[in-house]
Amino acid sequence: MIASPMFSGNGYLHYTDEEVMRRLEDSKTELDVEFRSFAPQGVLVWTGTGGGDRLSLQLRAGRLELRLNLGSGEARGIVGAELGDGRWHRLRLIRSEQEAELSVDGGPAVTCRAPGPLRQLNTHSGLYLGTPPSSLYLHFDLLACNVQFLDLNDWTPLSCTGVSFNGNIVPTP
């Protein structure tokens, strides 16, 4: 058995490590996450501010929704179906400047393009896996899930410094 973080609705991992921030704020980002969700709605990955640059991956009615804002407006894309089924799924996000491509379980990808001239993701909030705290003055749907794997630009930050955790570590078969 492998131990993995489990979020019961209001839990999260919060990465603030300098290396994580550098990789997030680069003009190119590749993110791979293996997750298992027990709910059809909620935040899985989030970084950003309330009204400016942000990137989020959220389950909406069992489908994965990408929202990307580089400061000039928001782009959205939706992929997958029935991802709140309690089974393990793997998402892959590739962002190169304004273009973003999202796929789940190796299926067809959705592509979207952030509007305007800006090309870099400028966030200073760190990277959240799970539902960010309400102290960010934003409303989020709560998500119950496990996360088993995280890769950010060919680097696995699950054991880096600058990580705070609000949730449980559970054995995963």
TrEMBL record:
CDD domains, per database record: LamG
Membrane spanning stretches: none
Domain Laminin G: start-end pairs: 2-173
Pfam families the UniProt entry points to: Laminin_G_2 (PF02210)
Database matches in InterPro entries: ConA-like_dom_sf, Laminin_G, Neurexin-related_CASP
UniProt cross-references to PANTHER family, sorted A to Z: PIKACHURIN-LIKE PROTEIN, SP2353, ISOFORM A
Protein name, as recorded: BC067074
Annotated organism of origin: Cordylochernes scorpioides
